[in-house]
């Protein structure tokens, strides 16, 4: 199963997934609307490798300045995408 198909079936309607360009695993970034979803501040990426679904998500995020949330979330997504992949 492709990851896009999995996300289409399993994600709430308020969540969209964006492909990371040129990613060897076809990883995708979770995008949540902050006005409709209280998990919008927790950046996540997901990919499938060796038939295993892998999701990397930062929980317990804190933003001292609420207006910085979007920029900080994008920064964390970039870091998640660069982590060494398993399995």
Strand content: 25-35%
Globally, the shape reads: globular
Straight-line N-to-C gap: 17 Å
How many structural domains does the protein architecture include?
Answer: 1
User: Secondary-structure element order, as H and E?
Assistant: HEEEEH
Number of helices: 2
Low-confidence stretches: none
Mean pLDDT: 81
Helix content: 25-40%
Region (Disordered): 16-37
Descriptive keywords:
87 residues; alpha+beta; 2 helices
What does this entry look like structurally?
The two termini are 17 Å apart. It contains 2 helices and 4 strands, in the order αββββα. With 87 residues, it is of the alpha+beta class. The relative contact order is 0.19. It has one domain. Helix content is 25%, strand content 25%. A 4-stranded antiparallel sheet has the order 1-2-3-4, sandwiched between helices.
Question: Would you spell out the secondary-structure blueprint of this structure?
Answer:
Elements: H1 3-10, E1 15-19, E2 28-32, E3 44-49, E4 52-57, H2 69-82
Antiparallel strand pairs: 1-2, 2-3, 3-4
